[in-house]
Amino acid sequence: MPAGRRTQGARVVVGLGLAIAMLVGCAENGRRAPAPEPTPQPSQAPETTSVSSSTPSPPAAAPPAAAHPDGPPRSCALELDPEAPGTMAVSVVVQNRTQEAFEARYFHPLVFHLEVWADHNKLPLDIPAFDGPVEPRSVTVPAGERVPIPTPVTLRFAPDGKRKTDSPFEWLILSPPTDVWLRAKKVLADTPELRCELKAHFR
Length: 203
Fold this sequence. Notes:
Number of helices: 1
Shape: globular
Low-confidence stretches: 2-7, 12-19, 26-31, 42-67
Radius of gyration: 55 Å
Order of helices and strands: HEEEEEEEEEEE
C-alpha cells in the first residue's frame, strides 16, 4: 500500500479513536453519581402519658383508734347524791373518750335493771313495778366530756323492808349498810348492753 494511504488511514483511525474517547468521556461526565442517602436520624418519640395496667393500690388504711388508758371509748357510771339521811338519789353519767360527739338515747323517766353485790353475794332488792308512760329522749355527749342524766330513783338500805313512800322509784336494798357494788343494765335505749357501775359505801 502506498505510504500516503497508510498515513491517511492512520489519521482516520486516530481520529475515530479520539472521537470515541470523547464520546465515552462525555457519557461518563453526564452520568451523575447517585446522591448519598441521608443518614437516618433517631426520631424524637412523641410525649406519652404512662398508664400502668396494674390495679392501683388502695389508699392506706386509717390508723387504729388510739387506746384509752382510762377506760373504754364510751362508758357509763352511776352517781349517788345524798337526798335524805340514808337515802341516795341515783344519776347515770355517760362518758365519751372519743374525738366525736354522740347521742345517748334513753327513755324518760329513766329506769333500769339494777344489781347490788356485796363481796360475791347478790343482795335482795325491793323494786316496785313502774307502769307509767315513758317518752324517748336523747342527750349529746361531747368529745372528751361526761354528761349526767338524772333519774327519779332513790336508793337506801332497808333490812326490814319498810318503805317510806308509795313511789315506784323508792328502791330498797334489803340488807344492813355495807360496801356494795352497784351494776345497772339496760340504761340506754340504743346501747342496752352498756353497763353502768359504781362501787360505793353509804349509810
